[in-house]
TrEMBL record:
Keywords, alphabetical: Hydrolase, Metal-binding
Protein family membership: Belongs to the FAH family.
InterPro entries on file: FAH, Fumarylacetoacetase-like_C, Fumarylacetoacetase_C_sf
Designated name of the protein: FAA hydrolase family protein
Entry GO MF terms: hydrolase activity; metal ion binding
Fumarylacetoacetase-like C-terminal domain sequence ranges: 95-323
Length: 327
């Protein structure tokens, strides 16, 4: 089953996407008994208050909308949290001086999310800004300290997210702290694993903050829909293809994630209670396509390319977003 959120005729709603691509408006179909949003439907499903199979049967044959007549919204518009996994691809870990032993996380605000077909706005002052194609997990059941072996039981479904990232903004939000020669403790001791050239170099601590570089408005295209977990046999073996305009530029797979989906969910839940509707995006597909124009994602500068981006994930769908450059 595929569920989406959309706007049609000035009214926001959510629906079930049929096999023919048409959308059944579930709020219209269910009337007074309809959950207020897709997030509420997800929660009700996880608690056993909504039978999705029965809902799909009820939607079969119901009036449906042409997808060309709707504006796609983020499937989950107000998640409690959007959690990303940093450098979770074997290509990235191979060049790390100290590879991560566990998934490392960052957060994106819900306001960064935008729907399929909506423009990604890139201002000239952002500097270098590039896409990051990723599989996203939608949590369906609340959980804390979830065992890895049971992690997928907490998944409602999967969607596509483009984790737009601006190294230009990241550079502005980075700082070098130079500690006094006799100083000890704190970051200096905690980061003793660093490779340093000499005692002078060892005094420097570099910190980077990612709120703007990852969380600026429109930096989270997501959708077009959520595919329920029962339709994805193994989320760790999905092909991912990324296009700059019509040209294939990156070709990867979730099989190349350093930490699989189950490990991501389990580790995150050791520290953060996961709630229905929460989004975990799993790591960037970064393997260049053979003969493609880019050898690294940072070469795909949206301020220069300005062509629509498309991401396809096997069994999930195709997410397309144009670029709106504002000098």
């Amino acid at each position: 089953m595929r569920f989406c959120s959309f706007e049609a005729g000035g009214r926001r709603s959510y629906g079930l996407v049929r096999a023919d691509g048409r959308i059944v408006d579930l709020r219209a179909l269910l009337g007074a008994e309809a959950p207020a949003s897709l997030e509420d439907l997800i929660e009700a499903s996880g608690e056993g208050r909504v039978d999705l199979a029965a809902l799909a049967a009820r939607a079969d044959g119901a009036p449906a909308l042409d997808p060309e007549t709707v504006t796609w919204r983020p499937p989950v518009s107000r998640p409690g949290k959007v959690v990303g996994v940093a450098i979770n691809n074997r290509m990235g870990q191979q060049v790390a001086y100290r590879p991560f032993a566990e998934p490392a996380f960052f957060l994106k605000p819900a306001t960064s999310l935008t729907g399929h077909g909506a423009p990604v706005v890139v201002r000239g002052d952002y500097g270098l800004t590039h896409p990051e194609p990723e599989l996203a997990v939608i949590i369906g059941r609340r959980g804390k300290a979830i065992p890895e072996a049971r992690a997928l039981e907490h998944v409602f479904g999967y969607t596509i997210i483009n984790d737009i990232t601006s190294p230009g903004l990241k550079e502005r939000d980075s700082i070098e702290l130079v500690t006094p020669p006799a100083a000890g403790g704190g970051y200096r001791d905690l980061m003793s694993w660093r490779r340093v050239r000499d005692a002078e170099d060892a005094r420097s601590i570099y910190l980077t903050y990612h709120a703007l570089s990852k969380g600026t408005d429109t930096f989270g295209p997501i959708g077009p829909w959520i595919v329920t977990a029962d339709e994805i046999a193994d989320p760790n073996r999905l092909a991912i293809h990324s296009y700059d305009g019509e040209e294939l530029v990156f070709e990867d797979s979730t099989a190349n994630l350093t930490f699989p989906v189950e490990r991501i969910i389990a580790h995150a839940s050791d520290y953060m209670t996961l709630e229905p509707g929460d989004i975990l995006h799993c790591g960037t597909a970064m393997r260049p396509a053979e003969g493609g124009r880019y050898r690294a994602l940072t070469q795909w500068d949206l301020a220069q390319a300005r062509r629509p981006m498309a991401i396809e994930i096997e069994g999930v769908g195709r997410l397309v977003n144009p670029v709106e450059f504002q000098p």
